[in-house]
Amino acid sequence: MVAVGVLSLSACGGRIANTNWAGLSTDGSWVYLAFGPRVLAYNPDTQAQSWIFPAENGAVQFYSAPSAEGDQVVFGDYGRAGGFFTPRVTVSVYAVENVESGSPRELWTNSESATDKIVAPPLQVGDQLFVGTSDNHVLALNATDGSEQWDYETGHAIWGQPAFRDGRLYVNSMDRSVYALNATTGELIWQTPLGGALPSGPILGDDLIYVSSFDGNVHALDMESGEERWSAPAADWVWGAPALENGAIYYSDIQGNVYAADAETGEQMWTQSTGVRVQSTPVVVGDMLYIASQTDGETPAGSLTAYSLTDGTMKWTQPTAVPLLATPVVVGDDTIVVGLQNADALLIGFDLATGQELWRYSLPETAN
Amino acid sequence: MWDTLIVNPMINALLFFYDLLGNNFILAIAVFTLVIRLITLPLNMRQQRSMMRTQEIQPQIQAIQKKYKDNPQKMQEEFRRIGYNPADTLTGCLPTLIQFPILIGLYRAIIIVLGSTPQSLFELVPRVYPAINLTSLIPVENKFLWLNLSQPDQFFVLPLAVFASMFIQQKLLAPAAPKTQGKDENPAAAMTQSMQYTMPLMFGFFSLQFPAGLSIYFVLANIIGIVQGLYMRRITDRERAERAANGNAAPYVIEADDAKPAKAIPAKTKQSANGSGSTKSKSSGSQSASKRKKRSAKR
Predict the structure, then answer these.
(1) Which residues of B touch A (CB under 8 A)?
(2) Domain total for chain B?
(3) pLDDT, tens digit, for every residue of A141-151?
(4) Which residue, A146, A359, B94, B106, has most beta carbons within 10 Å?
């Protein structure tokens, strides 16, 4: 009977769930997707997969959105479990060549610097690469060979992509603080604690940094000093980063309330209830605001909805079979792409103006 | 249903203790384990008592089984005389069975609360009751000394602690079989003895892969089990001593020869912990039956 118990425990999964929603990014023309045992590049023009990494599924999982810069794509994994007698988890950062087709050449791999999963999308700036890790560190790596330049330890995991401007790196940590670091040396310039954990990356304005927080606010901090200028309230946690466009910020809480506020003062311009759960970052294109969401129910589904930027009225909505948890990306002039956690379709491209489905991509049989 | 009734209340209890104990997850696990152990204490104690008692009278059980293997009815009668009810072996399993949902639920709860990906946090939110202020608790602190609670202990300290604590607990829970008996004579005791090694080894191995938070739970649960085992030992030792002081400690002996009547169980033998009835009336009843049998034979 005890053995049955042990087996039951094993069946429950000895490890903590190590999965996440898909990580989606773009360089403007291609879509990069990290989901499960693979990272891939998809060309919407040819509607074909450009490359997939690794060529054969391994034991490593990828969920952080890849960072594509020039001919190099960088991404981190969720860690490779050690064996029974080597329980240390090995976490790696990879740089691969952004090839037109086939298998990308691995340029370098760093398996030494991180000790816990990489959730945050890496950021490439010139010859530097900045990576936030779940072991609380911000790493600066040499973008050409992956060697470590410096690391800075925060109080908890980093889930949001860091932001860079004028030699400074801005980092949101789940420890509820925003950090400004010297990008060359890793020295702390300022640290501002806020009222809740910070699950997404900071958005940089002209002289303000906008930060979404689990304390139910979007905070605007002075970029120079880190001092808080104002905070715009929401009804619940604000998970996704705010979108900044034309002097206004747009954000949503996890109850599905969408807000528009003045980017200089934080004064609310309009609010709209969508009735669905939202944790992704809103996307602004032209005069439209696009929000990916999850609908609750016995079988959770999702939707991509377009709202007017001026007053928040709904323009169109497209249901999806599974929840949309990854922030959509815009490619070309007319397509918004969502990432799904579904074997039937990993990516769907919708027309920005009408919401009509343009294409969908699922993995070839051989990759499943 | 499973989540609503078992897992979610446990998640909320863990978060409640985490909040109450200064956002220290190790303390939260410790107090929660203690509470769970206290709730299941009556069941555990009954099970342990029954186990110890059965172990104590194992030689008599073996002897009866051997002697009356072809006469099940007589075997049952003899079992009743020594205060042993084979059905109690099954009901003795009941507490363990009842504990499984608790154990597996707790396991799930720890895994969900320690989940360290955005998705696991997103899935935690709807499970948390409105009375818990999750905002003030997130992120759950997952570092303790050298440990990342969501990863296995890379220095093997916890797997060793799980092994050692479980081994001691097993030793305490399962008293050694009499030395006069071999494995063939007492397979149950042999199995118990082999479990003393295999279970700690199994859990020790699993702990090499378990998140440290779970291994800590096992260590704490084992330590509480050890304390409980020591307490139960004291009680059973005292009971045995009382029986000895009352002159009731003489072992029940089954005579090899069926012609000779079985030596009666002492009249005032205490009632077994597993709730079987008094042996006094049964014993005298049996003696009367034996006398009647002898009289009938003379006639």
Answers:
(1) 93, 96-97, 100, 103-104, 107-108, 111, 114-122, 125-126, 135, 138-139, 141, 148, 150-154, 156, 195, 199, 202-203, 205-206, 208-211
(2) 1
(3) 999 999 999 99
(4) B106
